[in-house]
Amino acid sequence: MFGPAIGEECGVSFNEGKVLPPDNYYSSLNSEFVGGGDFPHDIALLLPLYLGDFQARQLFEPLDPYLDKYEGMDEYVNSVIEPYREFYMKWNGDTVALPIDGDIHNLFYRPSFFNDEQHQQQYQDEYGQELRVPQTWPEFNQVAKYFTENTEDGVYGTQVFGARPWNFGWWMDRAASRGVIYFDENMEPQINSEDGVAALEHMVETTDYAPPNTDQLGVAETIEQWQQGNVVMSVWWIDLTEFTARGDFPVVGDQSAAAIPGWEQDDGSVRRNAMMLYNRLYSIPASLDDARKEAAFYAAMRISHPDYSVNACADPYTGLDPFLQQHYTDEAAEAYTEKNPLRETGEGFPKNVPIFAPDKEYPEGRSAFEQAKQHIEAGQVNMENGFPQPNWPGANQYIEDLSIHIQRALSGQESPQEALDNAAEKWRNTVDELGRDAQQQAYQQFLQTARDLDYV
After folding, report:
1. Measuring CA to CA, how many Å separate 15 from each of 18, 233, 373?
2. For strand 387-388 and strand 275-276, is the pairing parallel, antiparallel, or unpaired?
3. 8 Å CB contact between 189 and 128
4. In this predicted model, what pLDDT tens digit does every residue of 378-433 receive, in sequence order?
5. CATH number of the structural domain 105-275
6. pTM attached to this predicted model
7. Angular region, 148: left φ>0, alpha ψ -120 to 50, beta rest
8. CATH 3.40.190.10, applies to 2-104+280-375
């Protein structure tokens, strides 16, 4: 999309890249490395979930020497939201990846339901409480139950993303906020702890207030449920409501974002940890010659830099989300109300439209700019408390096994306790297969960063 502009700026040209299948991304990217000869591309698109598996083989170039060559790089790196920077860009103390996509979970809701006087009165009568956007997970299920039972035309209170492997993120939204971590220091799984089981029990209850077969719903299905107005609330990646700019959907003009719910603490505060799930990074293959490494780094850095990424994150066709402090400013909010000035239309980008068009109506009389501010401010709150997916060697296998049993719990094939006990046993076997000492050493990086950021 930005190839011509960056090419003109720094004298590089972009050939057509290779798109790997999203359902088999890990093995496809791994095949590119082990297929014989050098890696056939200058920049690799990487998910943090796979970082440790690839960097344990030192396949990506440490980028700190390149960052040291250019002015303003300290400011650029430090502007990356802290959990993203510390968990996803680094390996063994080296910067080995640059961010291009800051996926984070938000809570989305339809204000018309919450502002309806009849619903407000009926909810007050039934629960003795004010109808509001849920602050805690128990309140979330209560509100979802109310709307499921008191709306017509097939509208449900919420939905659950049940498809593998990313369903684990919706469980971790709940579990991490209860203090659940993946392993302890000795690589004993913590997922089947009392708090982990309570989180999955809550998620299973949520399916009672969701459309049928929610245990099978993935990206396309949950987007459609939201866009067609079939649900009142949805926890999803930050760009859920952005996709509605691509067409004329029933929910346009009736969407708002908020911090995800959490769990009330003894002091009355609410702990919430939204999942930084999926995400995308650029890394430079270590096998390239020096000249190509230099050019690849500069191109990747410029795409990630706010000069380009502010507009990329505000474009409804990129699927890229905020990851820099600059992405949460008034200037960034303004970009959500304008066409992307850095691109034309073309294949994959059939239209160039703002996410929040000034000629549209928004909830509670907000202007397009005010709606954009509300949207990104919710994302900032969630990102600053973002909880990371595993990133050490073996992470892909751990999550595949966990997601299988979470789906079985959602479908009623296993109880939450059985599901997490079975997943934990699979995890113990994987630790032994990969080597307990090596796993423990790699996991310590993750655990120490979690301690540094007060997650454990």
Report:
1. 10, 42, 36
2. parallel
3. no
4. 999 999 899 999 999 999 999 999 999 999 999 999 999 999 999 999 999 999 99
5. 3.40.190.10
6. 0.95
7. alpha
8. yes
